[in-house]
């Protein structure tokens, strides 16, 4: 008689054999094929590693997985300008991002400084063909930014340098803080391109007075930014000051100037990062204060007076009187007129006397485009 334990073991072996025989032959073949493929892949991996080197295999696979698991970490990723100017940042987020500056001097790459042309307009830019003529051949030396009414849909052709250069915008009203907000919004978006070194505020009625190369050199060699900031003791200057501006601003610091400026990168950052003076101007400089004439000139006179030339580089004619400057149409455009605007003035440039004081002019009506284009080969030629 066999021991009980042996009988039990034999019973288990019999059950196992019965279960094994119950497995379909198709499944057994599949398991065998899977085992063979696994062993083959392992042998092939060992061979490739020895023959090609582990680093080569990793490098060949890296591009496929890099975008899935990590951001590109090469320098170009951080210094390239945004490929699309439209974004969803709030003004607060945008100004914070734009006010970040390098903490060390110099750039660890070849940087070609550009001029950012910032157009503050309600809608279309009727003089844009003249600007395209002005910019032709200098594609790597400028950037364009357009702030228009949010409801306006631009229709520049794809071949135009103005195509898709609109930034996220809001309604801007003359004499209101929303006008300064629009100007800061233009500056902030332009600051996101680290190659932009100078920032010029223009309107849809502005024209250039010299060729691009001359204007680019004029900016790059300047020791000062071109912001008008003067002390006007009369009713349209200090008369607009409110005692509630103190202690941030006292009446002796109150300044007035044209809103059309050209600022270096350093000064542009001052404007965008300001949170000290902005609340006071927004609350206490309301019509008939006209904040766009006082906020930047006053704030920059206090914060960075050594950086200011205390003059604008955009010519305008106030001689006809009224609340707005003169507008020039087709009949006004002559060679003598353009020569007079460009050369019949004196000023200082880098603390020396100069006869070139204005690089741009306004206000020009759409009807002025054809005669301006006809004179362009001459007044936009090399200076």
UniProtKB/TrEMBL annotation:
It comes from the Eukaryota. GO terms for molecular function: glycosyltransferase activity. Keywords: Glycoprotein, Glycosyltransferase, Membrane, Transferase, Transmembrane, Transmembrane helix. It is found in: Membrane. Pfam families: Branch. The keyword Transferase applies. One of its GO terms (cellular component) is membrane. Signal peptide: none annotated. The chain crosses the membrane at residues 27-48. It is a single-pass type II membrane protein. This is Glycosyl transferase. Its main location: membrane.
């Amino acid at each position: 008689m066999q021991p009980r334990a042996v009988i039990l073991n034999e019973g288990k072996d019999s059950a196992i054999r019965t279960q094994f025989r119950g497995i379909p032959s198709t499944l057994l073949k599949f398991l065998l094929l899977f085992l063979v493929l696994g062993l083959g892949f392992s042998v092939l991996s060992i061979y490739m590693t020895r023959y090609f080197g582990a680093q080569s295999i990793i490098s060949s696979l890296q591009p496929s997985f890099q975008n899935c698991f990590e951001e590109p970490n090469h320098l170009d990723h951080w210094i390239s300008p945004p490929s699309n100017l439209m974004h969803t940042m709030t003004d607060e987020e945008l100004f914070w991002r734009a006010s970040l500056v390098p903490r060390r001097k110099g750039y660890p790459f070849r940087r070609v400084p550009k001029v950012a042309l910032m157009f503050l307009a309600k809608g279309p830019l009727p003089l844009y063909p003249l600007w395209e003529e002005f910019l032709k051949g200098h594609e790597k030396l400028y950037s364009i930014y357009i702030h228009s009414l949010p409801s306006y849909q631009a229709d520049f052709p794809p071949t135009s340098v103005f195509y898709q250069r609109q930034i996220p915008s809001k309604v801007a009203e003359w004499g209101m803080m929303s006008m300064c907000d629009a100007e800061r919004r233009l500056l902030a978006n332009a600051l996101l391109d680290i190659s932009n070194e100078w920032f010029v505020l223009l309107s849809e009625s502005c024209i250039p007075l010299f060729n691009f190369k001359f204007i680019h050199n004029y900016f790059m060699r300047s020791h000062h930014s071109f912001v008008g900031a003067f002390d006007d003791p009369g009713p349209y200057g200090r008369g607009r000051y409110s005692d509630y501006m103190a202690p941030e601003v006292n009446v002796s610091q109150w300044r007035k100037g044209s809103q059309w400026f050209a600022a270096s990168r350093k000064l542009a950052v001052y404007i965008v990062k300001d949170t000290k003076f902005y609340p006071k101007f927004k609350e206490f400089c309301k019509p008939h204060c006209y904040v766009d004439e006082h906020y930047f000139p006053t704030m920059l006179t206090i914060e960075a007076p050594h950086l200011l030339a205390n003059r604008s580089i955009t010519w305008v004619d106030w001689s006809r009187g009224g609340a707005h400057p003169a507008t020039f149409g087709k009949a006004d455009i002559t060679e003598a007129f353009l020569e007079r605007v460009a050369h019949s003035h004196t000023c200082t440039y880098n603390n020396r006397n100069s006869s070139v004081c204005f690089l741009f002019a306004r206000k020009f009506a759409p009807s002025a485009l054809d005669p301006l284009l006809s004179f362009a080969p001459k007044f936009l030629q090399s200076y």
